[in-house]
Design brief:
With 133 residues, this protein is of the alpha/beta class. It is built from 5 helices and 5 strands. It has a 5-stranded parallel sheet, with helices on both faces. Helix 2 packs parallel to helix 3.
């Protein structure tokens, strides 16, 4: 029953989770797969960028603090690519700082979630920003 239109199905939605924490990747993957999402994961920005061009996710969650290429750099590279400029990027961080949020907006992130996030926070972000059928 979809009277409100709010609980649109997430089945088939490609969601990418970029985080160097195996726990965070696994937690997000488990939550999202239960909702029917097709979950793609990457341990850092370099791995993510090659997967993004091949797999074209509908929405991307990216951790800020990662080795090699951090979340801000990763987000900026995604947003600077003509093909993926419109793909929503949600920043993930264990810090809930104003500076971090502002910096995320500067590089083009749509939203900022503080870890540990709840199932509802994750799903609300997807429903707010991704094109859900």
């Amino acid at each position: 029953m979809n009277d409100t239109g709010k609980q649109a199905s997430l089945t088939g939605l490609r969601v990418m989770v970029i985080d160097d924490s195996k726990t965070i990747r696994r937690t997000a993957e488990t939550l999202l797969k239960k909702e029917g999402c097709d979950v793609l994961t990457a341990v850092d920005g370099f791995e993510a960028l090659s997967k993004i061009s091949d797999l074209k996710p509908h929405i991307i969650f990216v951790d800020i603090m990662m080795p090699r290429l951090d979340g801000y750099q990763t987000c900026a590279l995604i947003k600077n690519n003509q093909q993926f400029r419109a793909t929503p990027v949600i920043m993930l961080s264990s810090k809930d700082g104003l500076f971090d949020k502002a910096r995320g907006r500067i590089v083009g992130a749509e939203q900022y979630l503080t870890k540990p996030f709840t199932r509802d926070e994750l799903l609300d972000a997807i429903r707010r920003h991704a094109e859900v059928a």
